[in-house]
Design goal:
Elements: H1 10-14, E1 23-30, E2 71-76, E3 79-93, E4 96-111, E5 114-115, H2 130-154, E6 165-169, E7 172-180, E8 186-194, E9 197-200, E10 206-209, H3 214-218, H4 233-248, H5 255-263, H6 274-282, H7 284-294, H8 297-316, H9 350-358, H10 361-364, H11 384-404, H12 411-429, H13 437-456, H14 462-471, H15 473-480, H16 492-495
Parallel strand pairs: 2-6, 3-7, 6-10
Antiparallel strand pairs: 1-8, 2-5, 3-4, 7-8, 9-10
Helix pairs in contact: 2-4, 2-12, 4-8, 5-8, 6-7, 8-11, 8-12, 8-13, 11-12, 11-13, 11-14, 12-13
The structure holds zinc ion (ZN).
Zinc ion (ZN) binds near residues 236, 240, 270 and 309.
């Protein structure tokens, strides 16, 4: 890959879609008709904590940068400005009046930052510095890439090698949100991206870390440390890179998802703050745009993307504590947890199926949520990370059962291979173009079960079939239902005598 000096561009920022969006701290600036402004203050997380440069005298010529292997080049302290404009309108659709929200999204680099340069033993560099952030991101990304390379060299599926990727440590991002409602009342808010991480696809794929906020530190959100130090976060982001690379190879199945995602970066959050949903619930146009999204094919492909990224982090991690054990991620995002934080089971029974297709923001937003941190563990089923977590847990359950039937092989490598084989089988089917939400989710889950069946080969199927029955009851029902004749492509009903 070309290693000329790298700058963020609008086109690369525009494909934020596959990554995750930062939490924001917001201050309302009233620009018109102040009696009708929207209340954005619930988004507040406090100011970002300044991330210092550890060694300002260290330059590229004297010390090595981090650009080697899977890392193309690492930058730190880049400053960007994002302008989001939301215009609410009333439209008539089939003789019914409807509120809609049109959104535009622009980005600009306002400060180039500098290449990461390391002039001393990396282990002696403090983690809360720009260089420390870059080193931690690199370590995590390399672990995720190592697992991919292990599968590529030892596994039984054909995989391309991945191009090297850029790192962008401790980015300073200002987010300006302009909202104009249908009565032309307008607000403008300025936010700072904090407490998150993202992957951006495109010409220069990159991993990005954002600073911690004062409020997150005070409330011990994310374990009280910057997210780049939490094991699993950049393994997850690298998982998005793998997803993006695999799904873009040929195949046109995902065009609609990509297009949708590029236009709606707000819907793809690393961990969606409950306050964002609360704000959406207050605005009829935003609420209807979310409602239009949650039942669609794009929503379930977005959920698959998030679920796969969690699986990849889970298979890569060897640390005793990680993102899966800390506040806001425990249970909900922990692949091994059979339940969500509120006790709802991560199996595709009637309750979860109804949540996926019939829950409303109002029914999910319960309890007394005064700050975004209060509700950070509350599962909201309009969030692709939550549906993704159920996809990840249930896919892992069948992969684990299939791997247990092959005791001579390394289970983690085998399950990582199955997760890639699963994505490839979904992509190769190339049948997503015209599917609705239910058929899309079915196809995604069918492909996980089918992958497990393929890896089971001639081994005893008792444990595997028990997992299929317990984790996919609604799918079993659909497979047996004559109306869904196209879906039982796996023959799992006969295979397991369901
Ligand atoms: Zn993600």
């Amino acid at each position: 890959m070309n290693k000329t000096v790298f700058a963020l561009t609008s086109s690369t920022l525009a494909v934020l879609a596959f990554g995750c969006q930062p939490r924001t701290k917001t201050k309302v600036v009233e620009v018109a008709k102040p009696d009708k402004v929207y209340n954005f203050t619930k988004d507040s997380y406090g100011d970002p904590i300044e991330v210092p440069i550890f060694d300002t005298s260290c330059r590229g010529q004297r010390g090595a940068g981090l650009g080697e292997g899977i890392i193309a080049e690492a930058y730190m302290g880049v400053e960007t400005r994002i302008v989001k404009t939301l215009i609410e309108e009333e439209v008539w659709e089939n003789s019914k009046r409807k509120d809609i929200a049109r959104a535009t999204y622009e980005s600009a680099v306002i400060g180039n930052g500098r290449p990461v340069a390391i002039c001393q033993d990396a282990q002696t560099i403090p983690a809360n510095t720009q260089e420390g952030a870059a080193i931690s991101m690199k370590t995590q990304a390399e672990a995720a890439h190592d697992l991919y390379e292990t599968v590529r060299s030892q596994g039984n599926i054909a995989l391309s090698s991945l191009e090297s990727i850029y790192l962008n440590a401790a980015i300073k991002e200002t987010v300006i949100t302009r909202q104009v409602d249908k009565n032309e009342n307008a607000t403008e808010t300025t936010s700072y991206a904090t407490d998150n991480a993202s992957f951006m696809g495109g010409e220069n794929s990159m991993l990005i870390s954002y600073p911690q906020s004062e409020s997150a530190q005070k409330h011990k959100l994310n374990g009280g440390i910057p997210l780049w130090l939490v094991p699993g976060v950049f393994q997850h982001e690298f998982g998005h890179y793998i997803f993006f690379s695999l799904m873009n190879e040929g195949g046109a199945s995902f065009t609609s998802y990509q297009e949708y995602a590029e236009k709606n970066p707000d819907l793809h959050l690393f961990q969606t703050p409950v306050a964002n949903f609360a704000r959406i619930a207050e605005s009829p146009a935003l609420r209807s745009s979310l409602t239009d999204f949650v039942r669609t094919q794009e929503f379930f492909l977005g959920s698959l993307n998030e679920g796969f990224a969690d699986l990849w982090a889970y298979y890569t991690l060897k640390q005793p504590t990680s993102m899966f054990e800390i506040s806001c991620f425990s249970k909900n995002r922990n692949v091994s947890s059979p339940v969500f934080y509120n006790g709802i089971s991560k199996s595709w029974d009637e309750i979860l199926w109804n949540k996926a297709f019939h829950s409303t923001l109002e029914s999910d937003l319960t309890g007394d949520i005064k700050t975004p941190i209060d509700g950070c563990s509350q599962p909201i089923f309009a969030d692709i990370h939550i549906i993704g977590a159920a996809i990840a847990h249930t896919a892992d359950a069948v992969f684990t059962a299939a791997a247990q039937a092959q005791p001579t092989q390394d289970a983690t490598r085998l399950k990582a291979e199955m997760s890639l084989a699963w994505l490839k089988s979904i992509k190769d089917s190339n049948e997503f173009e015209d599917l609705g939400g239910k058929a899309s989710l079915s196809r995604i889950l069918n492909a996980a079960v089918g992958t497990g069946m393929n890896y089971l080969k001639d081994a005893d199927k008792t444990a595997f079939c028990a997992v299929v029955s317990s984790k996919f009851p609604m799918l079993v029902k659909r497979w047996k239902d004559a109306k869904t004749d196209n879906e039982d492509v796996l023959g799992v009903v006969n295979f397991c005598s369901l």
